[in-house]
Amino acid sequence: MTPIDVSEHPAADDSGGQLHGAAVQMVMDDLKQLWFSGKSLFDVLDVVYEAMRQIIPFDRMSVAFYNEETGMVVSRWVRSETEVKRVDKGYWAELKGSSLEPILRTGRPRIINNLEQHLAERPDSRATQDILKDGVMSNLTCPLRAGNHAIGLLFFSSRKPDTYRPGHIDTFLAVADSLSLAVEKVKYLDDLAQAKRNYAQILYFVAHELKAPLASIATIGSTLTEGYLGKLTPQQTEKVQRMIANSSYLTNLVRDYLDLSQIETGEMKYQPGPAVDLVEEVIRPMVEIQTPAARARGMTLEADLEYLVAPCDATLLKVVFNNLLGNAVRYGRENTKVLVRLVRRSFSDYNDAGEHIRQYWALFSVRNEGVGFAPEQKQKLFARFQRLHHPEHKGVTGSGLGLYISRQIVIRHGGEITADSEPGKWAEFRFRIPLRQEAPLVDAPA
Ligand SMILES: Nc1ncnc2c1ncn2[C@@H]1O[C@H](COP(=O)(O)OP(=O)(O)O)[C@@H](O)[C@H]1O
Ligand SMILES: [Mg+2]
Question: What residues form DSSP beta bridges with 305?
């Protein structure tokens, strides 16, 4: 890339003229648009880079954020027309006692037009040494502030000495508010996204660490109740059984947290097989798992299943089906039936090419008798950590994550999940996944 000669930037040099005033106005308008743009931090900074080049000369621009918690200024973004060797993204400095502090405090930009001379006056400045090694000779350092609060700093740099004039400070100050607001908004979103990633990682770490010890508690418990280490009294057996039940509750919770963290980080493993037998590979194994719990509540599981084969991830669909069936068994009424169905449904549609096609779906449903839910509670069901509280379900434990996770998995399959209920009578959860796409329907030749 050819280096930009700042003196060849007419708008940049014409800092007093009408042309310049119009350019400043245009940049301000561009920056205001940015708040509404929904762009990410880095996209916004790219736009800022292009916009600012029309009104201030530079061949490198960088943004550093001030972190109140740590007292550090950390470089978050650098874009340069020449190679950046030292002061790159991640470069940090302590704000307190540095020459950046008064800039942020007073809101006044600072010009250094000869960094070599500046270093001679402050030979200990690590940042000055490093920026010189990057070939920078002049610097215009501008504060980013929103209201009373310091966001960070914007650095304009040039490889030529003597680049910046007081007029450039005025130019920056004219756009400072719009610029700071745009950057603050995206920084805020960026911080939120980072916080969400941190939370998902912690969730994963904690859940992952709990998994093995919990499994071992259950195994040791079973060894005891089964009498391998000597016969237990009825009272001892009862206590150990409670221990096993509690650890199995925690194991389920941990499983939900692991799934959630995978979804939140976008790392959910989706490994579809081309032809999964939905009855034998998804439904039956889960019916088997839930049968003892159903029996314990005097419930029977009835199945009405069509033989269907679909391209899907059986491991993930088992999670969905197990959750729906588990909910029916836990939230359904004692001594009633739970009905499990799998049927094929089809409807005709138009594909992206505008061709008439027939689309086939596998429709799963799980229906139980019980208190169900009111129509206005429906939207809550599929949200994270949401549980309805009904007196009849007192003592039923759960994470409030099962339906959220299920919905994410079904969506991943290109399907849809829905819930229906007649309050006080029954609840039914249904989901569908695409079977295979039929070839376009061609009119039969005459
Ligand atoms: N079959 C059902 N009948 C009535 N309420 C249900 C049923 N299934 C789910 N719910 C309600 O939806 C909530 C969310 O379900 P879910 O996401 O699976 O979380 P969890 O089962 O861990 O509470 C449950 O707490 C319950 O209040
Ligand atoms: Mg559940």
Answer: 342
The predicted structure's pLDDT at residue 13: 47
pTM for this entry = 0.73
> Rounded to the nearest whole angstrom, what is the distance from the C-alpha of residue 421 to the centroid of ligand 1?
12
Q: Report the nearest-CA residue for atom 8 of ligand 1.
A: 327
Query: What amino acid is encoded at 288 in this protein?
Result: E
- Main-chain dihedrals φ then ψ at residue 331, nearest 5 degrees: -100, -10
Q: By C-alpha distance, which of 307, 200, 334 is closest to 257?
A: 200
Specify whether 24 is located in the same domain as 162: yes
Please tell me the predicted confidence (pLDDT) of residue 11.
Answer: 44
Both 395 and 365 in one domain: the answer is yes
The enclosing domain of 362 has a CATH number of 3.30.565.10
Say what the pLDDT of residue 273 is: 94
The residues lining ligand 1, judged by C-beta closer than 6 Å to any ligand atom, are 323, 327-328, 331, 368, 370, 372-373, 381, 387-388, 398-404, 427
User: What's 162's domain CATH number?
Assistant: 3.30.450.40
| 3-class SS of residue 388 | coil
In our burial notation (b when 16+ CB lie closer than 10 A, e otherwise), range 33-62 reads ebbeeebebeebbebbbebbbbbbbbbbbb
Identify any residues that bridge with 277 across adjacent strands, giving them in sequence order.
309
Q: What residue numbers bound the domain in which 213 lies?
A: 195-264
Residue 1 lies in a domain: no
Residue whose CA is closest, atom 24 of ligand 1? 387
Of all atoms in ligand 1, which is nearest to the CA of residue 323? 18
**Domain check: are 65 and 207 in the same one?**
no
Q: Which of 135, 170, 189 is the last residue of a domain?
A: 189
What's residue 7's pLDDT?
Answer: 42
Mean pLDDT, consecutive 10-residue stretches, the chain (446 aa), reads 42 60 86 77 90 94 92 94 91 91 94 96 90 95 90 96 96 91 85 89 94 95 94 96 93 94 91 95 97 97 97 97 97 98 90 85 97 94 93 90 97 96 98 79 52
46 and 65 assigned to the same domain: yes
pLDDT of residue 319: 96
Closest Cα to atom 4, ligand 1: which residue?
A: 372
Number of domains in the chain: 3
Report which protein residue has its CA nearest ligand 1's atom 13: 387
Task: Give distance in angstroms: CA of 331 to centre of ligand 1.
Answer: 7
What's the CA-to-centroid distance between 356 and ligand 2, angstroms? 39
The answer to whether residue 443 sits within a structural domain is no
Select from 189, 211, 243 the last residue of a domain: 189
The Cα 356–Cα 350 span in angstroms is 5
